[in-house]
Amino acid sequence: MSLANQIADCVAVVRRKWDKRPNVGIVLGTGLGGLVDDVRIKASFTADELEHFPRATALSHRGRLVCGLAGDVRIVVMEGRFHVYEGYSPGVVTLPIRVMHALGIELLILTNASGALNLTFKPGELAVITDHINLMGTNPLIGPHDDSLGPRFPDLSRAYDPAWIERADEQARRLGIDLRRAVYVAVSGPNYETRAEVKFLEMIGGDLVGMSTVPEAIVAAQCGLPTLAFSIVTNSCGESKPITADDVVAQAVAAEKKLRGIVWGLLGHFGL
Length: 272
Fold this sequence. Notes:
Blueprint lengths: L2 H15 L6 E5 L11 E6 L18 E7 L2 E7 L10 H4 L1 H9 L3 E10 L9 E10 L26 H14 L3 E9 L7 H9 L4 E3 L3 H10 L3 E10 L8 H22 L6
């Protein structure tokens, strides 16, 4: 089945239970599923209901699509995401973004947990991503092209929307939150980096490193979606202390309140 038909199938399933047009789409990364607690849920969908969605297997990722309201703003949320390291193709990983776009979102907000390459970034800090480096060794746009999904060669020079970055900065200042700006390096994972890799990634301009987000940002750019991405710094890379997945989740959960304040504050720009 073509990708366009898969998208249409998923949209039809959603529309049968929720016929509203969402304003914002949000993807919740590692340890950030609690943001759904603030959503007045009108409909939710598991992989069993959205037959083209895979099952989420990553720690703390539920893999559920949630539709509802944050205040008066209509939103659609991926409670967890899919990853290349789970064995899924980039096209499958990014299917939720294409479905959100087809549902009508006007803004995509991506979130993740990351490790600090630039050691001026400390665990527990929050960053807004201004640019990325794709070292995943793959791309969701590889393969036969369908003009109906967007241009073959989308421009990524402004993959992260400058106007929304400024609004995020303003909201962070209002809340007294130090919001860093960062270049995010995406690797396939699932292992954490060697010390030599950490040194290399910092040398090429990376501030943070993680295993997600970039495929979604690429597809969003092809779709013409304004995109904003936040990263919670969960650890410093290259430290002598071994990194564990449980530690990463714990740090993300601890910093979630700051992210929640910024994200929900930004929804006020829709003025509904």
